[in-house]
Amino acid sequence: MRLTFREQGLKSIFKMERRRRVDGLKEVIAGGKVLASGNMLWAYKTWGDKSLVMEPEIKVKKWFGELFNRYPFTEDAVAYFRTLNMEAGDLSRNLGGGYWYADKKLVQIHGAQDEAAIHELSHAFWEPRRNKSAKDLMAAVVGLSKDTDPCYHVPSYLAKLYINGDPNQQDPNSPTGYWRGMLVEGNDTEMYAGLSSGIMGDIKKLPPYVKLFYQELFNEKLS
Ligand SMILES: [Zn+2]
Questions:
Q1: Of 1, 40, 42, 88, which has fewest CB within 10 angstroms of its CB?
Q2: How far is ligand 1, taken at its centre, from the CA of residue 221, in Å?
Q3: What is the pLDDT of residue 182?
Q4: Ligand 1 centre distance from Cα of residue 194 (Å)
């Protein structure tokens, strides 16, 4: 029986797809991983990662448990984090990238980069506080963007980008042709998480009028 060109094409696609699945299952056995969730497959696509597997829950919880000890999270914050769902792609690699799915109470990270984990946990922490405090936070970040105290130059630099945007970052959807920043977008949650990972949880680096938004998330390190 001769196959038409189209049928041949379909057959080779099926073959490739089958191989992808079989390879995926081999990976599960080899790496102690589990099949990736729908959310993880979606995230992999955004990261250009072709993996079909992710870390098992027990390993993810253990990794986050160690992260909670490496950074000065408050006890209350850790207790809240332990109520959330957590997923990680590959903890053997120091990959950045992650997502917070508010509707699923899910913190998801691509790999073992602390900065990404702190960032996504901060989104999660800010979620129940947004309604009440979004406007106040954005006003404080406007203040920080104008703060010239050299003690706060790291967060102040970030705040300037968040508030004023970045003429070097092209954005075809923006009326100015460049990224206009987070204030025009009303993006309090990205400001909150961005500053948090920008200082890697060291709230000494924040002026008092910004620090107050982070004091339930991080203890101030004394050293
Ligand atoms: Zn973010």
A1: 1
A2: 24
A3: 82
A4: 6
